[in-house]
Amino acid sequence: MVVEKLQPPDSVAFVVAYLKSAYASRGETAPVGSKIRDPRPPKFTKVRLMGGFDPDVVRYAPMLLFECWGRDQFDDLTASALGRLTFGLINALPDANIGCTQVVNVGGLAEQPDPDSGAARYVFTKQLYLRSEVLI
Prior knowledge:
STM4215-like; 3 helices; five-stranded mixed sheet; 7 strands; single chain; alpha+beta; about 25% helix
């Protein structure tokens, strides 16, 4: 008898792939990833897993932090535009019908300059409800 087991999806990889595609379709050239190259690209979006839980048998609810940078400390308009675009795209995930059933706002879009470089940065946190993956 084969019993199915569930595992949480790789939520960071899921969101990074989604944002890369959504950015490209809108002409946005900012790279997206879970790690920052050195030197950091002029514009960049970082996605980081902050935790998660299983709300039911078939879904996993990761909490993700999104960080959107501008070029430098004077580029708050670019950082804001990238943050607002990313915020909207994440809110639209359930409508994309690709495995996300719900998005919950944990921390709204806020200006938070990078503590190391002083570069303009906007951040927000979302809880996503994603379908778990089946293991056999």
